[in-house]
Amino acid sequence: MHHIISALMLFAPPTGGQAPNPLVQFVPLVLIFVVFYFFMIRPQQKKQKEREGLLDNIKRGDKVVTIGGIHGTVAGIETEKKTVLVQVAENVKIKFERSAIANIDKQESGDKLAAKE
Fold first, then answer.
1. Cα→Cα distances 103→27, 30, 32, 41, 87, Å
2. pLDDT beyond 90 at 70
3. Which domain holds residue 35?
């Protein structure tokens, strides 16, 4: 218990006419940044990398849900993988930006859709 109290005293304002130690004043700022990084920034970066990897591996026959809530099956990937053609009903295909895909359910084979056409 004595160690905790003495540690807390490091952050107390100095008594008398002494100037505060600049290092002691800098430590809480560093600790706040470290906590912010590990609880906010790093998990978001990991999630973004996972999403990019998932969108890079999209293929024909994958069932997708767009950010607008439209469910469909990937009918094709066009122009350097920037747009995706999604079949939402028989003979109805809609072109979406790849980034508009919210969720992907992978299929065993991309040839399942080819049998329908």
1. 42, 37, 34, 23, 15
2. yes
3. 2-54
